[in-house]
Specification:
197 residues; alpha+beta; Phosphatase 2c, domain 1; 8 strands; phosphatase activity; PPM-type-like_dom_sf; PPM-type_phosphatase-like_dom; Protein serine/threonine phosphatase
Length: 197
């Protein structure tokens, strides 16, 4: 999985995101590790755009059989680990420069998930957004909302959080806001690829 947020808000940002996603997909298909995936994307952005452009990103691998979660965080807020309807911790990780800045080989962060754990990945636009002159949405408000909403399935929670954020913004956005909620239930992924004959 990956969350990618290109700098800027114009056509250049769209091209930058396209190159980043293309590099990510190419590296992922080559089955490289997360550190090499980061380095491949970093080199592609630098070669195409030079040192004045960057992409923030989180690259994630989850072993659906064991619940072993690995990630590289390149400029996003720390994801939140949610267990038993409570945000129990931010999954802090060593700092890695955003993609395109020529960062060092990143350190891979790891976490063992328990059955039913959820992890919320999000971009800074989710917590930093505010109406002109108003208060930022903030991580505390987001955590409060997530903890109150956790009885619902992941799709419903993400839709509801997105709607709440839009209401807080007065229906106007000034930054991209991406959220991605993952729930690990244990077992295999066989149910995800049913073939009908």
């Amino acid at each position: 999985m990956a969350i990618i947020d290109a700098m800027g808000h114009n056509l250049d940002a769209a091209v930058l995101a396209t190159v980043a996603i293309g590099a990510y997909r190419h590296a992922r298909r080559a089955a490289v590790g997360l550190a090499d995936l980061y380095m491949f994307m970093d080199e592609a952005i630098d070669k195409q755009f030079g040192p004045d452009h960057f992409v923030t990103a989180q690259m994630v691998r989850l072993n659906v059989g064991t619940g072993h979660l690995q990630w590289v965080n390149a400029g996003h807020p720390a994801p939140l680990l949610i267990r038993d309807h409570r945000v129990i911790q931010a999954l802090e990780s060593p700092g890695t420069l955003p993609v395109g800045f020529g960062g060092d080989i990143p350190q891979i962060s790891e976490q063992e998930l328990r059955r039913g754990d959820r992890v919320l990945f999000f971009t800074d636009g989710l917590i930093e957004e505010h109406e002109s002159g108003g208060e930022q949405f903030g991580e505390e408000r987001m955590i409060d909302f997530v903890e109150r909403a956790l009885g619902r399935d992941v799709q419903e929670i993400t839709r509801s959080l997105s709607r709440t954020l839009m209401q807080e913004r007065g229906g106007i956005t000034t930054d991209d806001a991406t959220l991605f909620l993952v729930e690990w239930r244990g077992g295999s992924a066989d149910h995800l690829a049913n073939l009908e004959m």
